[in-house]
Design goal:
This is D-glycerate dehydrogenase. The protein is of the alpha/beta class. The protein folds into two domains: 5-101 and 293-311, NAD(P)-binding Rossmann-like Domain (Rossmann fold, 3-Layer(aba) Sandwich); 103-284, NAD(P)-binding Rossmann-like Domain (Rossmann fold, 3-Layer(aba) Sandwich), CATH 3.40.50.720. The protein has helices spanning 14-17, 38-46, 61-65, 85-90, 103-118, 121-129, 158-169, 183-189, 196-202, 222-227, 245-253, 293-311, and strands spanning 5-8, 25-28, 50-53, 72-75, 94-96, 150-154, 173-177, 192-193, 205-208, 233-236, 259-262, 282-284. Strands 8-7-6-9-10-11-12 form a seven-stranded parallel beta sheet, sandwiched between helices. Strands 2-1-3-4-5 form a five-stranded parallel beta sheet. The longest helix is centred in the C-terminal third of the chain and has 19 residues, at 293-311. The chain is globular, with a radius of gyration of 21 Å.
């Protein structure tokens, strides 16, 4: 009996993929750090029953209209703005994602990025490595405190709540803005719901964890940055398109906010000519929010398990609904 064909659009560890070879004829893009070419993606997907896709793969309406055999797409991410879910649904193709397994890891990175930006940790490390440290002085690379400050979380989903739990350990005052109020978060975390504008005006640290949508695209623009305190630090660990990067650069250059920590960008990978990279008060990471070995392996496992369940006629663990 012929096994269903599964194509994986980025190289994943064999010790995880291997256990699923009993169920599928598995083919895989041979590179870990190089995105699959569009032509290859189309050709391989057209002859597959299932694919594991990455957030860098654009699965648009044109893609799904060409699929006659494909039954399920397992996206290796929580977000799925790279996928036209409506078009997939019209073709009867199930889409899944990887929530929950990366929540705590992404929250670790987000809070670490906040700490690093506030205390100028990357800048200080470079200062030593470049042999600039000649003497101790009272205000050498002095940053700003995190403890007992006010953190404003925009997007109080699973990751937002996990970041808030970490903020509790620093005895921070927690305020948040979300599309809908999260009463359980208010009760369990002592978080206070504010309007978006009020949060911007009050928070010492503005942390963006909002999903990308038509409503959130360019949410952080010139007007938003002008509302923030001059001492505020902005952190983005959600999606790059939520921020107008030109407006962020202008706000930093004009001293409208103190600094920024970024893990995501409008266009990825960000080039070394990007003006934000020239600013000492900005930390830029290469989209590594969930990049721990344990979590990435768990994400791969969940993708493959979702596919196995769908192909066997069962409900996937984490389906995406439009």
């Amino acid at each position: 009996m012929t096994k269903p064909r599964l194509y994986i659009t980025r190289k994943l560890p064999e010790h995880i993929v291997g256990e699923y070879r009993q169920y599928f004829d598995i083919k895989m893009w041979p590179y870990e750090e190089k995105s699959i070419e569009r032509k290859t993606l189309m050709e391989e997907s057209q002859k597959s029953d299932a694919i594991v896709s990455m957030l860098t793969d654009e699965l648009d309406k044109d893609f799904f209209m060409r699929m006659k055999q494909l039954k399920v797409v397992a996206n290796f991410a929580v977000g799925y703005d790279n996928i036209d879910v409506k078009a997939a649904k019209q073709q009867g193709i199930i889409v899944t994602n990887t929530p929950d397994v990366l929540t705590e890891t992404t929250a670790d990175l987000t809070f670490g990025l906040l700490l690093s930006t506030a205390r100028r940790i990357v800048e200080a490390s470079d200062y030593v490595k470049k042999d600039k440290w000649k003497n101790w002085s009272p205000f050498l690379l002095a940053g700003t405190d995190v403890h007992h400050k006010k953190i404003g979380i925009v997007g109080m989903g699973r990751i937002g709540e996990a970041v808030a739990r970490r903020a509790q350990g620093f005895e921070m005052e927690i305020v948040y803005y979300n599309r809908s109020r999260k009463r359980h978060a208010e009760e369990s975390l002592g978080a206070t719901y504010l309007s978006f504008d009020n949060l911007l005006e009050q928070a010492d640290y503005v942390v963006c964890l909002a999903p990308l949508s038509e409503e959130t695209k360019n949410l952080f623009n010139k007007n938003a940055f002008k509302r923030m305190k001059q001492s505020a630090i902005f952190i983005n660990a959600s999606r790059g398109q939520v921020v107008n990067e030109n407006h962020l650069y202008e706000a930093l250059m004009q001293g409208e906010i103190r600094g920024a920590g970024l893990d995501v960008y409008t266009e990825e990978p960000i080039r070394n000519t990007h003006p934000l990279l020239a600013l000492d008060q900005v930390i830029c990471l290469p989209h590594i929010g969930s990049a721990s070995i344990e979590t990435r392996e768990a994400m791969a496992q969940l993708c493959l398990e979702n596919i196995r369940l769908v192909i066997q006629g069962k409900e996937p663990k984490t389906p995406v609904f439009n």
